[in-house]
Design brief:
This protein is mainly β. The protein contains 2 helices and 11 strands; from the N terminus they run βββαβββββββαβ. The chain is globular and about 35 Å long. The structure holds zinc ion (ZN).
């Protein structure tokens, strides 16, 4: 994977990720999605189409995938501690993902300001194409 890398975990440590991006934290796109799921989790999403993301679970038996609304992505939750760590979508032969910045082990001090976003007007095709362009390519660890 490229550098620098950031690691993240759920609260109990069962689920984790490694996120790599050349972008300085001050330039990250940090999005407060206004959908009900993200508001209920107080989730903040980030991704970098030029970065790399790997989900690395210490105890994959705790992984709960959750789909809702348009059913296009898997939102990854810990069965034990309940934390939402990120989401993935499979498009053609590739996988793309986002992380919840609240799950970073050491959130960068100079992380970018949060922007509120809504995607309510998207249809399935629009949602998939946006994620293919903006989400981070997922690689195996
Ligand atoms: Zn957990």
């Amino acid at each position: 994977m490229i550098e620098p890398r950031y690691t993240g975990h759920c609260h109990c440590g069962a689920l984790g990720f490694r996120y790599a991006t050349y972008r300085a934290p001050a330039e990250w796109s940090v999005r407060a999605c206004q959908c009900r799921f993200c508001r209920m989790h107080d989730a903040l999403s980030t991704s970098d189409p030029d970065g790399r993301l790997a989900f690395v679970h210490d105890d994959a038996t705790q992984l709960q995938r959750y789909r809702f609304a348009l059913q296009t992505a898997d939102f990854l939750l810990c069965r034990r501690c309940g934390v939402y760590i990120g989401a993935t979508i499979d498009i053609s032969d590739a996988s793309y993902g986002i992380i919840n910045t609240h799950a970073l082990d050491t959130p960068p001090a100079d992380i970018a300001d949060v922007g509120a976003v809504t995607y309510d007007d998207e249809d399935v095709d629009g949602r998939i194409s946006r994620r293919a362009q903006r989400w981070t390519p997922v690689v195996s660890a």
